[in-house]
From TrEMBL:
Domain annotation Anoctamin dimerisation: ranges: 82-145
Family: Belongs to the anoctamin family.
Its membrane topology: Multi-pass membrane protein
Organism: Spheniscus mendiculus
Single GO term (MF): protein dimerization activity
Chief place where the protein resides: membrane
Keyword Glycoprotein attributed: yes
Compartments where found: Cell membrane; Membrane
Source organism, top-level taxon: Eukaryota
PANTHER family linked: ANOCTAMIN (PTHR12308), ANOCTAMIN-9 (PTHR12308:SF37)
GO annotation, cellular component aspect: plasma membrane
Domain Anoctamin transmembrane: residue ranges: 148-714
Protein's name in the database: Anoctamin
Amino acid sequence: DEEEWDFVLVSDIHEVGSEKEIKRKKFLDELSKKGFTIKKIEDKKLFYGVRAPKQIFQKYQGLLRKPDNRLQNPNVHEDIPVTTRIRIVNFILQNTTTPDLEKLHDLMKKKVFEATFPLHKKEEAREFLKEKWARWRGIFCKQPIEKIRCYFGEKVALYFAWLGWYTYLLGFAAAVGTVVFVAGITVFSSSQVSKEICEASNTIMCPLCDQKCSFWLLSDTCTYAKVTHMIDNEGTVLFAMFMAIWATVFLELWKRQRATVVTNWDLYRWDEEEEELAMELINNLQHEPRQYQHSYFRSTIILLLVLLMIAVLIGIAHALVIYRVIAMALFTQSNFAFLREQANTMAVMTGAVLHYITIVVMTKVNRRVALYLCDLEKPRTFSQRENNFTVKIFTFQFFTNFSSLIYIAFFLGRINGHPGNYVRIAGKWRLEECHPSGCITDLFIQMAIIMMLKQTISNVMEYLVPWIAHKLRKKQQRPKKRCMILGEEEEAEDPCKRQWLSNYQLNEVNIFSLFDEFLEMVIQYSFTTIFVAAFPLAPLLAFCNNLFEIRLDAIKMMRLCRRMVPRKANDIGIWLHVLEAIGILAVIGNGLVIAITSDFIPMQVYKYTYSPCMTENNTGVDCLTGYINHSLSTFRIQDFEPYTNGEPGLALTGLCCRYRDYRNADDYSYTVQFWHIFAARLAFLILFEHVALCVKLIAAWYVPDVPQCVKNQLLDRKHSNLHEELRWVMPQKV
């Protein structure tokens, strides 16, 4: 068709003879020399439609045709898919050099061209996807991966195939997590530990802050204790183990799924390097491949800069800790009774919101830093640059998202000292303490708030920002009805003009558009697996989010954004290694949460060593009877630091208060029980991690990466190819 255009370049209308106009002309002349057809349409901007000559695609087919095809029909050129056509034209546009040694990228930086994009056209695949896929009503329907591939290329199709598969298997994890959570709700009221806390109306606790904090009764925190034991129970330990195995099984099953999909696409043994070299030669026959290089000096500099950035991110986590400590001190001195009573919870919740804001801000900073480091590295190819960028941005995002959670999980309440000798920030503010029933609820609140905010605000913004931007662009670009000279009136009727304008009004896409979607999902996968022992509802939230995420991404790509340049791929690339690393971190993280954050180990040690069941052979009582009294230490009030000004809100029977720790009453040194529990925590951690990693390895071995049917298909293909070659060779010998 004479009016089929591969790409559109958009430029401002520059003055004749200006530097920008000369640069633009030079670039378009270079394209003309390569045989490109160029059509110019003038509106408020200049639009240049470009169409590549047939010889380019014939060269591509000739270079990358399989040997068996080459033998059978050396002169036949079947139609090339639209996605491949766009990819080749984009490569040539990006790598065409003007006499001034400038490429399109440089010209866009200098505002010679404003935009470049392939067109959304009225193809059969597009109409199908708009109607059946990019609709909210199709939320529970299977995705048409084959059609997505035909329109957006293999890389986008593999992203949606992976996201669909992840969401499908997340359904099972969500169901188990919900059962564990509901079991916790139904069982927690009968928990012996929470019962003891609720009945401890004579246990006087030490003040939680220095000023305006009174002594308090342990029974006042009855509700908090019940909530804690709703999360912190035996079911959570089993669920953490289940999620470690789930993560492995999910990846192994994905590898099988991916092998089946790419075999059907005939891309199983596709070579990206060969593809790139072929395109370089099509663009420029004199092209010399860039050699592999490695500089230890450059790598050392990059490593040091990455470590510096990680130190900055950990510093931000420290700032959040300081905020919580100061907020706690201010809330406890507030004139509002509610704020004073709920000071700890309010500090945790506002800290979580602040953490979310730092995540949003630092995501933008992390991207700029990662891009700068990639430029320093000077990677050989685009795919290598993408891999390097992926590793760096994921590392930065991981520390941005998880530094604060790591502090709450493993350090909160463990480095704050004890009454009479508190650890203080700037010698003034006390570090936070854990509740007598454990710190796991703080981690639960933090994760719940961050996940809810990420999945509501972030998703709403992800949809609304492109939608509003599209509407505004459409309004600005609406052509004014003019009636001047006859030629211009005819030009306004040009169907190309309408099509190009409507595509230009859509939101810009860049090379990171798909990358952003992957990064968002991989960070979500980290939340779903790494601290799942503290938040069993994480898989359920992720599952609900993903059902919407698939359609949200589909609507954005089909209706709100310009067409993405298709990319060829036969897997999800380095993301698979990132997911495998998260799987190992999940085992370590959950092992640490159960061993350190949870009260599971201290309870078991008490149950099997110090409980009435063991010491008195009394089987008629609950074995955890007396656990709370056992886990609290005694402090003499006269030993408080001089500036602790607690308000004695209770008539003190003995001049002592209790606090959560295992210390002697006389010199406040650690008791034998502390070291017993410490050894048990360490033993459990080693055992849990080794068992979980062994189960992961067995699961990885048990589920083959490639299905047998795919292996047999490849075997048959090789056999038939060799058979065919032999048939062509034999007559020549005769």
